[in-house]
Write a structure and sequence with these properties.
By secondary structure, the protein is of the alpha/beta class. Helices cover 34% and strands 23% of the residues. The protein has eleven helices and 13 strands. Helix 7 crosses helix 9. The protein is globular and about 55 Å long.
Length: 294
Amino acid sequence: MNQNFEEVSCNYCKSKSYRIKYIVDGFNYVQCNECGFVYVNPRLSDDAIKKLYNEDYFGGKGFDKSVEYKKEFEQQSNTIDLNDWDILAIKGFLPKQNTELKLLDVGCGMGLFAYKAKQKGFIAEALELSEFASQFAASNGIKVLRASIESAELKSNCYSVISMKEVIEHLPNPTQSLGKIYDSLQNDGILFLTTGNYNCPERRIKGNKWFYFMPQGHLQVFSHKTIRRFLVKAGFRKIIVTRQGDLLMNFLLKTGVIDINYYKPKSFLKRILFECVRFVNHFISSGMRIYAIK
């Protein structure tokens, strides 16, 4: 096999038995015959993966051309967006007596989420593999450790919140990473993560043309069931998986239904619309928002 590729077993159950579900850009998305988890096999080697996250990637010229991360930071850092609502939702899960809100954003990219959290009163730190992205985030006042979650030395019982927005699908070893995150959270601390939803209708309709299939970097693809299994295995005592991606949530924000001062609208009519849209989103969304409590 080419030295830039490696064969891997299922990261959840370690089985080597699988069937090919999709072929995308010459890569196999396979499904474990034992637990049903979907992942890329063979995949790029760890060294090859690290080289993906250069300046081109964060400018929308890498394997994921859907987002220009630098442009996104410049446009959204000082405007209201879904990051503000996500931070409000996270605060709602934290114990009321938790006055020192310390957050670590894993895979922070250009640092937008950590930047917003800092504005909302968190002591915000970040972890980022890319030299380009970590330097950009640091230039905007974010304390950044340049390292992968696998190599980072994190203090135990340190953070009240750890966030991973669109990161877990990139990780070579999510089992190991979630274990490290669990250890670094305080008791009653929260892991907030977002990722794609393998069980969404769009994937069933589009097959290997589903936008979330980017096998160079999206090494794992989770369903609501498999992400819950990984989090249970890591030790989390309470797990809330919401099949709520950004598309309809952004609609609620732009139409003024979402008030970023409240997790749910105060107005009766807006509350009904909010709940109706989220009900529909539950069945059609290509993304998930997950809250796991230690």
